[in-house]
Specification:
The chain is mainly alpha-helical. It has one domain: Hydantoin permease. The chain has 18 helices and no strands. α1 packs across α14. The radius of gyration is 21 Å and the shape is globular.
């Protein structure tokens, strides 16, 4: 095993990479997109586009990571044999650090709402109200708490930190989701939501806006472009079959998004049945932060004592999803500092987390002007462009023979595989065009 650490098991890697991909984008973003884009028509196009667009880019990151066995800056520098690659690597580190800065704030809210359910259970009403009332003190305290949890895991390293916790947190996430889904489906109104979610209106399927949204969701839900998957790929043994591992990660990521929709869309219709407002002025289902912090808590309040337990389970689920993503984000700058500056992992983790937390505090103090701006800057503009650069590097600059040699390390017949027949030209021609169209439409 190399000094930089390696996943000790296939399941450890798949759950860690899936955990990175499974974040708030899947659990609040996906159902919100479904709600505002014609229900099942969106689900169907998302499933298709996740494999047509997200999987090839995911494989580009995994292959570059494992072939170079280094941090994102050196990896892209080696593949391009130029400073352009290193510059893109630094851009990726800056982007992922900014994403983590706002993600830490939202992760903190999830922890606060989970603790609010506990406070209600213990009859601590004043504390419960403070936990869900927006305030500078609450946001800073819980952002710090969320970052401390992330630091605790990442400072353990690849095997004793990231892998150990991913193997615990991901099954917990699935169990909580299935239990919540089972409970919601026993409530009046749930079947109406299920029909909206599962019965497509085929007239909507080729709506350009729906396609752009589905494409964006597929791309962002797998946390592509910012180096998280490249770093995880660099910790994979050469004995593993990367195309199969990539398919497993994609399937789990898509599965969680679909399961989240199965939980949240019926829950919204249960809320409607219980007298909670779920449609906005424009007649569309309320989405994202309104859905998570207003509609669903209102629903839990209508459920009596059971609602407190459901709220606790739901916000625990959201906290776990946030955490499995934040650990991969923090690992991107940490691996660079550890390898380039020869700093110990422990010191690097604390130093970088402190810098990112400081950025979070600046965002909290200037919330109205910075929060939305940072989200748009990173996820709408920076991430697709980074994904585009990765496709250009993997498709046009990195030598095909080198990529094939990397695949042949564990599969002597890789040259004749379906993956090798399709992926090289697909990542070269199709993915860049699709990402550019998506980017242009989003402007």
């Amino acid at each position: 095993m190399s000094a930089r650490g390696e996943f000790s098991s296939r399941i450890g890697f798949v759950l860690a990479a899936s955990g990175s991909a499974v974040g708030l984008g899947n659990i609040w973003g996906f159902p919100a997109q479904v709600a505002s884009n014609g229900g099942a028509a969106f689900v169907l196009m998302y499933l298709i586009l996740a494999f047509l667009l997200a999987y090839p880019v995911l494989m580009a990151e995994f292959l570059i990571g494992r072939a170079t066995k280094s941090n994102v800056v050196d990896a892209l520098g080696q593949v391009t044999k130029s400073n352009l690659g290193r510059a893109v690597g630094m851009w990726g580190i800056a982007t992922v650090s900014l994403i983590l800065a706002f993600y830490g704030i939202v992760g903190g809210w999830m922890l606060a709402y989970a603790l609010q359910a506990l406070a209600n259970l213990l009859g601590l009403e004043q504390l419960a109200q403070w936990l869900v009332a927006s305030s500078l003190a609450r946001d800073i305290v819980f952002c710090a708490l969320f970052m401390l949890l992330t630091v605790g895991i990442v400072s353990g390293g690849v095997v004793k930190g990231i892998e150990r916790w991913s193997v615990r947190l991901m099954p917990a996430l699935f169990i909580i989701m299935l239990l919540l889904f089972g409970y919601v489906m026993t409530q009046a109104g749930a079947m109406d939501g299920l029909k909206v979610y599962l019965l497509p209106n085929f007239s909507d399927i080729l709506n350009p806006n729906l396609l752009i949204s589905a494409m964006g969701q597929a791309f962002f839900s797998m946390s592509l472009g910012v180096g998280t998957m490249l770093i995880y790929g660099s910790y994979v043994s050469h004995k593993e079959n990367l195309p199969k591992l990539g398919a497993a990660v994609s399937l789990i990521d898509i599965g969680v998004a679909v399961l989240a929709g199965l939980l949240i869309i019926p829950a919204m219709y249960v809320a409607l049945h219980n007298g909670v407002q779920i449609f906005g002025e424009d007649g569309k289902l309320l989405a994202e932060d309104t859905l998570i912090f207003a509609v669903l808590p209102s629903l839990f309040n209508t459920m009596g004592l059971a609602g407190i337990f459901v709220a606790l389970a739901f916000f625990l689920l959201m906290s776990i999803a946030s955490l499995t993503s934040s650990i991969s984000m923090l690992e991107v700058p940490v691996s660079y500092v550890v390898e380039k500056q020869k700093v110990t992992r422990h010191k690097a983790v604390w130093l970088i987390a402190a810098i990112i937390f400081a950025i979070s505090v600046v965002i909290i103090f200037n919330f109205a002007s910075l929060f939305g701006f940072v989200i748009a800057l990173t996820t709408r503009y920076s991430q697709p462009l980074l994904g585009l650069m990765l496709c250009i590097f993997a498709g046009w600059i990195w030598h095909r023979n080198e990529i094939l040699r990397e695949l042949q390390k564990n599969d002597a017949k890789a040259e004749h595989s379906m993956f090798w027949r399709i992926w090289p030209w697909y990542v070269k021609f199709v993915c860049p065009v699709v990402i550019l169209v998506m980017f242009y439409r989003s402007l």
